[in-house]
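[Meeting: bench + compute handoff]

Bench side (C.D.) handed over the final construct sequence. Compute side (W.E.) agreed to return the predicted structure before the next meeting so the bench team could plan truncations. Sequence as handed over:
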Amino acid sequence: MTDVLQLLNGIAEAPSLQTAWAQAALLFRDCGFSRVNYGFTRFRSGNSIGNPDDAVFLTTTDPAYATLYFRDGFFARTALYRWTMQNVGACTWRWVEEAFRAGALSPEEADAVRMNILMDVRAGITISFPEPSPRCKGGMGLIADPGLGHDEVDRIWAARGPEISAVAHMLHLKVAQLPAPCQRRALTQRQRAALEWVAEGKTSQDIATIMGLSVQTVEKHLRLAREALDVETTAQAVAKSTMLNLIFARPCPGAEPDPQEVGNP
């Protein structure tokens, strides 16, 4: 119990998403799940996670599987994705195999099962997290190590389910608190500052005076921020950057001044 409490505190106090993820992954690996996938979106619409570039994806799987699972959208074709979007809680994967053998899955979901079998992804646990907003959804898939079947996973979950669940939930809460990893070009420090001043109700002229820039340069920073966030208006940029914890927070890793900005206000 002491070790789990220390781990939970470590995740809660982690200075970065990478640090929190690495600490949680150690516990999952110790329990028999060295391969773990995690996803979180703040832009859910129905059964869609929205633009994948706006979601957080974390994994301990090898690069080939990670690319297939996340970048190629394989996750959205699985029965467990459907379950995650429709439920809150945890389930083992036994029901997927039973539904597959009974012919109760959709053709796309059945194909996903066959592909996973080829990659030795057979048994595991899925956790669907409760969310404060219908726009948010987070889920985690813990893939059982090779050689572990549904019976072994059931025994692991019966013995260590509470600690696995507690660590998973703490990790999820920490991810939701931290700046989202930048899938696109990161916001620069001046873009973030300009958006923060807009959020405070300042005009471009006000921001120019505060930041010691020209109005044209402020407008340039706001335009580039809109492009980086893939939105049309500055109001949308402020809203989206707030949802992603990119402003009024520690900057996203890589958020350094552009070469064009250095020495060129």
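W.E. noted at the follow-up: The CA atoms of residues 47 and 85 lie 6 Å apart. C.D. will use this when planning the next construct.
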